[in-house]
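**User:** Once you have settled down, spend some time on the protein underneath, comparing sequence with C-alpha coordinates, and judge whether sequence predicts the C-alpha coordinates.
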Amino acid sequence: MSDQVAIKTWGNSQGIRIPKNILEKLGLHVSDTLQIEVIDDSIVLKKAFKHKTFEERVAEYNGEISICDYDWGEPVGKEIL
Protein backbone atom coordinates (compact mmCIF):
# COMPACT_ATOMS: atom_id res chain seq x y z
CA MET A 1 0.00 0.00 0.00
CA SER A 2 1.46 3.33 -1.01
CA ASP A 3 -0.25 6.68 -0.52
CA GLN A 4 1.10 10.18 -0.82
CA VAL A 5 0.39 12.85 1.77
CA ALA A 6 1.30 16.53 1.85
CA ILE A 7 3.06 18.32 4.70
CA LYS A 8 0.82 21.14 5.93
CA THR A 9 1.23 23.91 8.48
CA TRP A 10 -0.41 23.12 11.81
CA GLY A 11 -0.01 26.01 14.24
CA ASN A 12 3.75 26.64 14.59
CA SER A 13 4.53 23.10 13.41
CA GLN A 14 3.96 21.00 10.33
CA GLY A 15 1.93 17.83 10.07
CA ILE A 16 0.49 15.18 7.79
CA ARG A 17 -2.93 13.58 7.71
CA ILE A 18 -3.03 9.81 7.84
CA PRO A 19 -5.74 8.33 5.59
CA LYS A 20 -8.67 6.63 7.33
CA ASN A 21 -8.04 3.25 5.64
CA ILE A 22 -4.52 3.12 7.10
CA LEU A 23 -5.76 4.05 10.58
CA GLU A 24 -8.41 1.31 10.40
CA LYS A 25 -5.92 -1.28 9.13
CA LEU A 26 -3.58 -0.56 12.06
CA GLY A 27 -6.31 -0.13 14.66
CA LEU A 28 -5.28 3.46 15.39
CA HIS A 29 -7.62 6.07 16.85
CA VAL A 30 -7.57 9.81 17.51
CA SER A 31 -5.22 10.63 20.42
CA ASP A 32 -3.26 7.35 20.12
CA THR A 33 0.46 7.81 20.63
CA LEU A 34 2.97 6.89 17.94
CA GLN A 35 6.72 6.43 18.13
CA ILE A 36 8.58 8.29 15.36
CA GLU A 37 12.07 7.44 14.07
CA VAL A 38 14.25 8.50 11.19
CA ILE A 39 15.88 5.49 9.50
CA ASP A 40 18.20 6.39 6.62
CA ASP A 41 16.02 8.71 4.53
CA SER A 42 12.66 7.45 5.87
CA ILE A 43 10.30 8.57 8.60
CA VAL A 44 8.95 5.50 10.43
CA LEU A 45 5.85 5.66 12.65
CA LYS A 46 5.08 2.78 15.02
CA LYS A 47 2.40 2.15 17.61
CA ALA A 48 3.80 3.14 20.99
CA PHE A 49 3.81 0.55 23.77
CA LYS A 50 0.76 0.97 25.96
CA HIS A 51 0.47 -0.52 29.42
CA LYS A 52 -2.80 -2.35 29.96
CA THR A 53 -5.07 -1.37 32.80
CA PHE A 54 -5.98 -3.87 35.50
CA GLU A 55 -9.47 -4.10 34.00
CA GLU A 56 -8.05 -4.88 30.53
CA ARG A 57 -5.85 -7.61 32.00
CA VAL A 58 -8.75 -9.18 33.92
CA ALA A 59 -10.92 -9.09 30.77
CA GLU A 60 -8.23 -11.08 28.90
CA TYR A 61 -7.76 -13.63 31.70
CA ASN A 62 -9.03 -17.04 30.63
CA GLY A 63 -8.75 -18.81 33.99
CA GLU A 64 -5.46 -20.53 33.23
CA ILE A 65 -2.20 -19.93 35.02
CA SER A 66 0.95 -20.74 33.12
CA ILE A 67 3.88 -21.89 35.19
CA CYS A 68 7.32 -22.23 33.74
CA ASP A 69 10.67 -23.09 35.23
CA TYR A 70 13.43 -20.57 34.76
CA ASP A 71 17.04 -21.68 34.61
CA TRP A 72 19.01 -19.27 36.77
CA GLY A 73 22.26 -21.09 36.00
CA GLU A 74 24.65 -22.74 38.39
CA PRO A 75 25.01 -21.41 41.97
CA VAL A 76 27.89 -18.92 42.21
CA GLY A 77 27.83 -17.95 45.87
CA LYS A 78 26.25 -19.08 49.11
CA GLU A 79 22.77 -19.72 47.76
CA ILE A 80 20.63 -22.02 49.87
CA LEU A 81 19.60 -25.06 47.88
